[in-house]
Amino acid sequence: MTTQQPPAAVEPRPAPPPARRDRRSWTGWGFLGPFVAVFALVFLAPIAYSIYLSLFRDQLIGGNTFVGLDNYTQALQDDRFWDSLARVSLFLVVQVPIMLGIALLIALALDSGRLYGTDFFRITIFLPYAVPAVVATLMWGFMYGTRYGLVGDINDAFGVTLPEPLSPDLVLASIGNIVTWEFVGYNMLIFYSALRVIPHSLYEAAEIDGAGQFRVITAIKLPAIRGALVIATIFSIIGSFQLFNEPNILRQLARNAITTDYTPNFYTYSLSFNGQQQNYSATVAIIMGLITMVIAYIVQLRGMRKGA
Amino acid sequence: MRRKTSRLLRGIALLSALALGATACGGSDDEGSDQKPVSASDLQAALKKGGTVTVWAWEPTLKSVAADFEKKYPKVKINLVSERSGDKHYTALSNAIEAKKGVPDVAQVEYFALGQYALTKGLTDLAPFGAEKLKDKYTPGPWNAVTQGSDAVWGLPMDSGPMAMFYNKKVFDKNKIAVPTTWDEYVEAARKLHKADPKSFIAADAGDAGFTTSMLWQAGSRPYKVDGTKVKIDFSDAGAKKFTDTWQPLIDEKLLAPITGWTDDWYKGLGDGTIATLVTGAWMPANFVTGVANASGDWRVAPMPAWTKGDKATAENGGSSLTVPELAKNKELAYAFAKYANAEDGVQTRIKQGAFPATTAELQSQEFQNTKFEYFGGQQANKIFAESAANVADDWSYLPFQQYANSIFNDTVGKAYVSSTKLADGLKAWQDASVKYGNEQGFTVEK
Q1: ipTM of this predicted structure
Q2: CB contact under 8 A, B14 and A273
């Protein structure tokens, strides 16, 4: 059979002509093209345009001028920007561990198999995530009200004076409460699905070795879902830095407590929509994007290195 | 250095362009810039041809005006968008102008905000449409506001806001409190009222830029001085001190309901006796009728409290014009509608529904002054408003970027309402932030 192989195939193949190589590479581009076009249009172009914008300054008097990196120098010395960044950082440090901790506890409880009605429990915890952030904030905003809201009703009914959730000292915590309520279910689902894929043989081995439930959690479950923990943390960091909806909506109820530069995102919004400072707004947005990227990257590196 | 010079040159160029506005109407823009004079017959032709006019305005009486207008000119359709007001309205308008897309044909713009839109050429100069001939129809205050001291006409005055004190007579009677005529009496009344009924407050004030500037205006403070691109901002004069000395105790003793204006809570508070007085512009009655219908008969009108007994000086609060944005699609129809609403039949329609006119003839007519307001228990409230209109203190001006300044009012002065910051310090912070913004925008701002 092998002898019947046509000799032509053995003949030295001529080097593919350059034209052919060209054609091959074009085929690749043909497949890649649609993606690249869309990617460039919706991803690269807006970033490029923002960077372009950040190099100019458009004034009410004097019009549009090229200012180089002036906007960046200004932003790096802008107290309002740093204050807002400090505020979301505080939010991040306090709210994210609480939220992820609760989510993890619920996921472990669901995964333990010792609960009745887990499906119902799971969907109930997850449900707030399905409520649009705007609706959720309006709802909580109403409950926080000391005049016509739930807090006010409780005060009236029991003759007590609860602290005002929308006062300047407490409003950040109140926002944290809303965000926790919204995202515990989402993070729980990430952890839960990661827990579900752990091979059962590990549990059996642990049982043979006489490990208790707590040991199973620390020695098997947590290390196995480290990837999911890192991902959820990164999402939460990004979410915290991009905090906007909640303060923006609550501001209608607490104008004096939530300033127009409350969070970096809200600051860029105010700069561009109240002050017509689109250029400076773009600058602040770019700096904020870079900071978020760096921090998310550090968390990812650290999280993954421990895992290795 | 060179950059600064060219910026200055551009500033001068822009200013001269503005000054020439009336005759050379916006010659710098390339599209729709060469606005030729539009004659009355041109307007008639446009009305016959018909089309759609999109109007962004929250003034409630415009609804009937639009209906009447459509009846009179069946080919014209008025698309009235009225759910936004205040900051949100200006944000939307500025965005549309910036994006050059979705710009309305007619936009309501309050007098305080006109400067900014006129300066940035967001609006059409209505003089070539014949608006300058309407000058004698209007009272001087509103006309000065729409012309910004130039030959251009940036809008047609819709109403004016000479201030008066609206008070809930039922609440005052029930607690046997005399209606205050001076601000000292007002503070006393506030204490008595809140003591008699802890659920009642003399007023709702959660920090409102428009109210505060009007109070300063009446107190004789003149914090803003504007001369072209030269601006001076100073909240440390005697008038400002008079205001902060009176208002600070009201805040400290928690005698003001911390309710933001125009919210659901606010309307509810006006209706159920939580808020006992409202010191605001004479355009308010129409809003009472539509927004606080359940309290009809409870409220009355009294002159604005004075700083010293017998002093009649008042101030303006709000008041707005209908403008035609530079990028409006159908300027002839837009102008025709604005003119109908603010200088023709629409004026009467609006007065009947409680609006306060800016037109001299209507203000002085017996019929107007003798009108009995059913909502105010048959009171001839227009007499008080007209008296106030005649006593508005002069020489007040707003910043050419007042809209931005107002947007950061609660960041600065607002602190005084919720923390230990004092009102005077809040005003200082507001001043500093406004100066900073003005300088960033190319104005020469002094403190």
Answers
A1: 0.81
A2: no
